[in-house]
Design goal:
By secondary structure, the protein is α/β, with parallel strands linked by helices. About 30% of the residues lie in helices and about 25% in strands. The N and C termini lie far apart (about 40 Å).
Amino acid sequence: MKMSRLFSHSVLSLLLLLMSEVLVAAEHPGYINAPERRTTGIGKFYMGREIAFVMGHQAADWLNRPGRIAEERPDEVVENMGLEPDHVVADIGAGSGYFSFRIAKLVPQGKVLAVDIQPEMLALIEEQKARDKVTNVEGVLGKVDDPNLPPNSIDAAIMVDAYHEFDHPFEMINGIYNALRPGGRIFLLEYRGEDPNVPIRPLHKMTEEQVVREMSVFGLDWTDTLDFLPWQHMMIFTKLE
Ligand SMILES: C[S@@+](CC[C@H](N)C(=O)[O-])C[C@H]1O[C@@H](n2cnc3c(N)ncnc32)[C@H](O)[C@@H]1O
């Protein structure tokens, strides 16, 4: 008798757990593959936006160009993230680590997980770690549909000029969402799609409206958009508690 009650209680708990997983799961809006593609696009559409092709590691020098300091003010970006010294931050689509190493200085007791799908980019990060004797940046090889981060393990995630080229944006944000602790924040920086004066190809920019639309399928609160940058939106989303 006791055993069967125990059993039915466990089955009920399992069912409730499964139901709550189903209830929190975001609904996939779906992808559309078009026969035509625009220049620098991959012909795959997500919520009305054509996804851009991935920037190859051969162009890594462009990420480190000196003019980028004035164009993107990277030090001010990381100062505006409101990080604590022990925070764990994932830099998704980290490239050569342009932002990872700046963030690492702000989290001396924490760490930066520099996620990229190109091993060559992670190799550049390893070179800089050795050169500058940095111990709190860890390279993580992700997949196109998985940032490869453990659940509930990060306080913040940042994507700079990267999200528009994720060819599985839903799966990537889903993975980041699961990796965030409750109250954790996503910082999404993209060139302003609304602004024709930003000298970047159209598929490599995003409007604020489009970003909000794509994030709205997850349990994320659009907390703020900081507009101090010359060319980009710095958008902040918070995982609901
Ligand atoms: C234009 S670079 C930007 C790099 C870096 N965030 C910066 O601002 O210097 C975009 C990076 O995103 C990476 N990437 C593309 N799809 C990805 C994915 N699904 N997961 C992780 N990284 C991805 C690319 O390999 C590339 O290194």
